Amino acid sequence: MDRDGGVLPAAEVGVFPYAGTPEQDLQLGLFAAAWQEGQLPFWSLSETQAMLAGDSCRAFFAAISEHAQWHGVVLVEVTDEWSDLLYLYVSLAHRRTGTARLLLLHLLERARGELPSPTVILEVRPSNLAAWGLYQSLGFVEVGRRKAYYRNGEDALVLKHPGYEVPWVRR
Length: 171
Prior knowledge:
seven-stranded mixed β-sheet
């Protein structure tokens, strides 16, 4: 929040790599607890930390500074062929501020310039219209469908970003 009590727009936020520091693990723990309480529980903190301990999983977080409270986080599995966006989470207080777009643009820029492949893939629920709209606006296209992929039986749309130029993102 800014000094007037409003939520800061994503333009005021930077994106930083997760490095596994105790301070970052505390923030990751707060997020993991929040996403466990939602309608669609996600990985626990220990499951997320185990993935991040491997060589192929990366995380980037959005915050005012590297040591500030997180606004959102993106988890990605990196291979030689593509980067698989595993999870994108923005705290309730920072939704609809552009934080999700900022994290995705950062990931696309990283994929284009630093990761082994510029291609980014992901799955999204067809019922998650906000996410689906965001992904489409950034150039993701549907390339498949996984029937009854989610625990509740809902299909997953498989989306791919072909890796072409994206706007520059503040790091």
